[in-house]
Write a structure and sequence with these properties.
about 170 residues, alpha/beta, seven-stranded parallel β-sheet
Length: about 170
């Protein structure tokens, strides 16, 4: 598929938000994954670098050219933009009351009869998603982890969560 064909193709109703992601390789990886699953757009926030940049391109391999993206000075501004578009926003974070990724069918975005737009927020590699963004989100989603480590690289996390959302959204289309 060409970049032009991608831009004109039907997308899944999913937006990916990067909240102060510092590694350009992680940013590029998220673009590449977003391209693979036809994510609607990527919102880059705060210190998150924007294309064009050779380090982003190294892992995006052109995904930064095919997937629509916007920049916001803060992730809060991005979440406000999404809520104005009637998009349900979920922070990907370990927090009290979070929904495990395997249980996301219970979330309104999947349990509602109507087709619903969703956004997933991924945070900084060290600090995670800003607390104010978590508080303003419609919920938190957590990937269960069973080893000695309780965190994953942000691009790995994005790949897992984007795939799970895409899989379930494609089944509804």
């Amino acid at each position: 598929m060409s970049v032009e064909d991608f831009r004109e193709s039907e997308k899944i109703p999913l937006t990916v938000v990067l909240d102060d992601v510092r590694s350009m390789y992680n940013i590029g990886s998220v673009f590449r994954t977003s391209d693979a699953f036809r994510v609607e757009e990527v919102l880059l926030c705060g210190i998150t670098a924007t294309p064009p940049h050779p380090e982003i391109h190294k892992t995006a391999l052109g995904g930064e050219d095919s997937v629509a993206w916007k920049y916001f000075p803060t992730a809060m501004e991005a979440v406000e933009y999404l809520h104005k578009k009637h998009t349900l926003v979920y922070s990907i974070e370990q927090c009290e009351g979070s929904t495990m990724l395997g249980d996301i069918d219970t979330l309104p975005v999947f349990s509602s009869q109507e087709s619903q737009r969703a956004a997933i927020v991924f945070g900084n590699e060290v600090k995670g998603v800003h607390q104010e963004v978590i508080d303003y989100s419609d919920g938190c989603i957590e990937i269960p982890q069973y080893g000695t480590k309780h965190s994953l690289n942000v691009s790995v996390t994005a790949g897992i969560v984007i795939w799970e959302f895409a899989r379930r959204m494609i089944q509804r289309i």
